[in-house]
From TrEMBL:
Organism name: Actinokineospora cianjurensis
Signal peptide positions on this chain: none
Residue stretches making up the Amidohydrolase domain: 45-514
GO molecular function: hydrolase activity, acting on carbon-nitrogen (but not peptide) bonds
Pfam families assigned to the protein according to its UniProt record, in alphabetical order: Amidohydro_3
The protein's name in its UniProt record: Amidohydrolase 3 domain-containing protein
Domain of life: Bacteria
SUPFAM superfamilies given in the database record: Composite domain of metallo-dependent hydrolases, Metallo-dependent hydrolases
């Protein structure tokens, strides 16, 4: 007997063997079959969906759950457009001397310049202030924090980027398990409201965006309402003292690597940072940003980065390499190629996270190495006008490509990098199809993809990149019944309305976990 029979719906399965269906049967959280396969079977509950559109739950292949959840409840200066307004918000915030004050929503571009350490000190009132840049790649701190930084950490009047920011955050650590569990639950609720049922947390345990050395324990305790794949910070790799014949120069304790865990929570890739971010102007480019003599920076010493990539590959990890600028992409691709030559492996599914500015000559190398491109279309929807300006007209078409990857045989994976931008997949899908920014300008018109291709990037391709294609990403017999019910059909609405489609309900394991109680 079926647990649930859903009828009279437009199921877009994302499975080429059966692209569409009108009915779907569920038993024990899994899909049993479609249409005539299940129509005559007895069911504990039968629900008529009245022609609603149903897709597989979206897969967001690059998110930051704890950061996103903490950000939703943190002190924010996002509405401020003047330096004095930012300082006033910080001055009025509660907090005792010696305590840390975390402030989010900071973006120097709207202010015309960076806030300084002395300015923060003038409103700190004895507190340690960490003003986090929206990119997640930089921060500004007051003098009290600078005094505690290790020798040799460079800053520009309190502005810290990449490894410098990581050093400041390390002083702030750790967050408690209670704080992290609450943040994960908050972020999960937002994901489910947007139709996302599977996410890849882009780095736990160390590195640039860390919250505690026991961060994984928070996910174990969170009673997760959606599926999470955890990327592990490369900085956790160490000499294991393994048998010489094991060929494991560095790894994680107990030999854990990609694939450990189950369908609800598991370990995915090793996260390696190569460069910074375009918003903070730290993405590593081969030529300077327009109107500048600055071309970004490495996250750490390039030899250290190469070592993480080589040793991670050798130890059996899938690699998720953060590389935004084309210079960073060169280092990532070159080192992956070297690692594969020295230690051949099959089905590695290595990923370049962001791939924000990719030259035409680099596209074929992704395909040659079997490396997927995990892009964030909403970066350009929200920040595309600024990014195009700093790239200049000769490089604007390189930004967060779509068609260029697909035409070169590269697996195109879409994600949000929440909370850097709003995470809604439908808004990102709209940009992928129209390439139109929030201001109405078009960036890289030739990189537009079809609606079907954009949907695939948020379902099938995302599941494959997260090594979850056996369970999610499409609706097929035996797969988990993770569904999103939409208020309109993405295939038939006007492209500029895709982001406005309502998420009516979201289901995980066949149970509604957000929205209308349709069943």
């Amino acid at each position: 007997m079926l647990d649930l029979l859903l009828r009279d719906a437009k199921f877009h399965t994302m499975d080429p063997a059966r692209p569409t269906a009108r009915g779907l049967g569920i038993w024990s959280g899994r899909i049993v079959g479609f249409d005539d396969q299940v129509e005559s079977l007895p069911a504990r509950r039968v629900v008529d969906l009245g022609g609603a559109t149903v897709l597989p739950g979206f897969v967001d292949a690059h998110v930051h759950m704890v950061w996103a959840g903490l950000r939703e409840n943190a002190l924010s200066v996002a509405p401020c457009s003047r330096v004095d307004a930012v300082l006033d918000v910080i001055d009025r915030a509660p907090g005792e001397p010696g305590e840390w004050l975390d402030v989010v929503g900071y973006d120097q571009r709207g202010l015309g310049r960076h806030i300084t350490a002395d300015e923060l000190e003038s409103v700190a009132r004895g507190r340690k202030v960490l003003l986090l840049h929206d990119s997640g790649h930089a921060c500004v701190v007051n003098r009290a924090v600078l005094a505690d930084l290790p020798d040799g950490v460079e800053h520009q009047d309190g502005f810290l980027a990449e490894s410098g920011m990581a050093a400041a955050r390390a002083l702030r650590q750790p967050y408690s398990l209670v704080e992290m569990v609450a943040a994960i639950r908050t972020a999960a609720s937002t994901c489910l409201a947007e139709g996302v049922t599977t996410v890849a947390e882009a780095g736990v345990g160390g590195g640039l965006i860390s919250h505690s050395p026991v961060e994984l324990a928070a996910y174990q305790r969170a009673d997760l309402p959606l599926r999470v794949r955890l990327m592990v910070a490369a900085s956790l790799l160490r000499d294991l003292g393994a048998h010489a014949g094991d060929d494991l120069p560095r790894g994680m304790d107990l030999g854990i690597h990609t694939g450990f865990g189950g369908d609800r929570l598991g370990i995915s890739a090793l996260k390696v940072f190569v460069d910074g971010g375009m918003m903070a102007r730290t993405a590593a480019m081969t030529a300077p940003y327009a109107g500048s003599d600055h071309s970004g920076q490495w996250y750490a010493d390039p030899d250290e980065i190469r070592g993480y990539i080589r040793d991670g590959h050798r130890a059996g990890w899938q690699l998720a390499v953060h590389a935004i600028g084309d210079r960073a992409v060169d280092l990532a691709l070159d080192t992956i190629a070297e690692a594969q030559r020295r230690h051949p492996r099959s089905d590695t599914r290595h990923r370049i996270e962001h791939a924000g500015a990719v030259r035409p000559d680099q596209l074929g190398r992704f395909a040659e190495l079997g490396v997927s491109a995990v892009v964030q279309p909403s970066f350009l929807y929200y920040y595309g006008d600024d990014y195009a300006a700093v790239m200049g007209p000769e490089r604007a078409d390189w930004l967060y490509r779509g068609r260029g990857f697909l035409d070169n045989g590269v697996d195109l994976v879409a994600s949000s990098d929440r909370p850097v931008t709003v995470g809604a997949p439908l808004r990102a899908i709209q940009f992928m199809v129209t390439r139109q920014t929030q201001a109405g300008n078009v960036v890289g018109a030739g990189e537009a993809v079809s609606i079907a291709e954009a949907l695939r990037a948020y379902t099938v391709a995302g599941a494959h990149a997260c090594r979850m294609e056996h369970a999610v990403g499409s609706l097929a017999e035996g797969k988990l019944a993770d569904l999103v019910v939409l208020g309109d059909d993405p295939h038939t609405v006007e492209p500029d309305r895709l982001g406005d489609i309502e998420v009516v309900a979201t289901a995980v394991d066949g149970a509604v976990v957000h929205g209308q109680g349709l069943w």
